[in-house]
Design goal:
Elements: H1 10-19, H2 28-35, H3 58-64, H4 68-76, E1 79-81, H5 90-94, E2 96-103, E3 108-109, E4 113-120, E5 125-131, E6 134-141, E7 143-148, E8 155-158, E9 162-165, E10 171-175, E11 180-187, E12 194-201, E13 204-211, E14 219-225, H6 228-234
């Protein structure tokens, strides 16, 4: 049977409960997506614990989590580095890890929903980027700075607070002097590239395409100019 409450991992139950406090209907598609996952399907096996420098922040973030179910998920799920490749800033590449509960490589398989945890080291700047999937960030521990749109105002996301990024909206993330742990949820096209934006002159931009094989880090595959039409769409 699909979506029985008793079959859902407690991580997903915690997400749904956090979403339930928001009554404006903007989270309805995300809730519906979580509720229709078939958790009776065979789970992927647990992997060996990741040995990585950014994992040293995990114990502190677990102790500060606003919901202990996220802390238990952080201990149980399989962590991996998100990006790798030549020319990538080392601090940025090494400072972002993810652990997927549901998704193309998560503990519970799905090609329509990706949800899990996102760990960011201190003083990280994840630059302007877009992706086809719609996204929710729920701050589990710490404090994150976000910006939607090239000229949008930055705002902070604190423990228990969430933010929605629509499909194709350009956005960036920054951490302060402390690490951050987020719960994330993607719905839509999970396999499309993520595009990082770079300004090449005062009025010219290009975007770098990153793609992944499920279970491996995202890798750079190409660069192309960004048209004014693309810029307008991504800032809408």
């Amino acid at each position: 049977m699909l979506g029985e409450v008793s079959e859902r991992p407690e991580f997903c139950e915690a997400m749904l409960e956090a979403f339930a406090h928001h009554k404006d209907g903007s989270l309805t598609p995300f809730c519906d997506a979580l509720k229709t996952i078939d958790f009776s399907a065979a789970k992927r096996p647990k992997k060996c614990k990741l040995e990585h420098q950014t994992m040293r922040y995990l114990d502190h973030l677990k102790s500060e989590a606003f919901d202990t179910r996220f802390a238990r998920a952080a201990e149980d799920l399989d962590w991996s580095q998100i990006y790798e490749g030549d020319g990538l800033n080392k601090d940025l590449a090494e400072g972002m890890l993810a652990a997927q509960c549901v998704g193309t490589y998560g503990r519970h398989p799905s090609d329509k929903v990706a949800t899990g945890l996102f760990l960011l080291a201190p003083d990280i700047h994840y630059p302007l980027h877009t992706h086809a999937a719609s996204e929710v960030y729920l701050c589990v521990s710490g404090r994150l700075q976000l910006r939607h749109g090239m000229h949008g105002a930055s705002f902070d996301l604190r423990r228990g607070e969430l933010s929605i990024t629509p499909s194709g909206r350009v956005h960036e993330l920054k951490t302060y002097s402390e690490p951050v742990m987020l719960a994330y949820l993607w719905i839509g096209d999970l396999t499309a590239p993520t595009w990082w934006w770079e300004q090449t002159s005062n009025d010219t931009w290009q975007r770098v395409s990153w793609t992944r094989i499920p279970g491996e880090p995202w890798k750079q595959i190409g660069v192309e100019p960004i048209s004014q039409d693309d810029i307008q769409k991504a800032n809408a």
